[in-house]
Structure prediction request, 203 residues.
Amino acid sequence: MARPDKAAAVAELKEKFTSAQATVLTEYRGLSVGELKDLRRSLGNETTYAVVKNTLTRIAVHEAGIDGLDEQLVGPTALAFINGDVADAAKGLKNFAKENPLLVIKGGVMDGKILDADAVKKLADLESREVLLAKLVGGLKANLTKAAVVFDALPSKAARGLGALQEKAQADPSVIGGAGEASNQETDTNTPEASDAQDNTNE
Prediction:
């Protein structure tokens, strides 16, 4: 490969490593062209699966600021650049490897962190983004329903409380305004009529 072509290939790999949500490294030795096509199809449109040269990939990885991936860049290597749901893509790779043991998951990188093969397989066991969003929406709906029930109950509770207060006030007026009436009666003892009555008593 001529130098300009190598530089372009490195730049393209660097851009893919930088922009991808995650990248999974695989060994594809022994897989036919048809099987590779089936693998690409199973990964969907948001994952790019490409056979790469290890020497160029090492350069691209270092230029992208990723350290620790050299050990996985041995033997025939193909990269799955995941731009969509990481769990879905990892699940696709894991399932394909079960049916086609010639596909070997070496490891990968996500958020700048190096993943070994077991870590990639654990990603495949995670719930997809769609499932998590569905659960989140379901939880929000449940909370909104509970809130609506509480708000609906507030007027009836307030009405019952007012009704109980009204009944209590009828039996005991001091509950609402009785205290004010009682204090008025006490102050009436200081009126002139009350004073005359008291003087007559003293006589």
Notes: The CA atoms of residues 81 and 191 lie 98 Å apart. The radius of gyration is 40 Å. The chain has two domains: 3-126, 127-170. Residues 129-171 form the longest helix (43 residues).
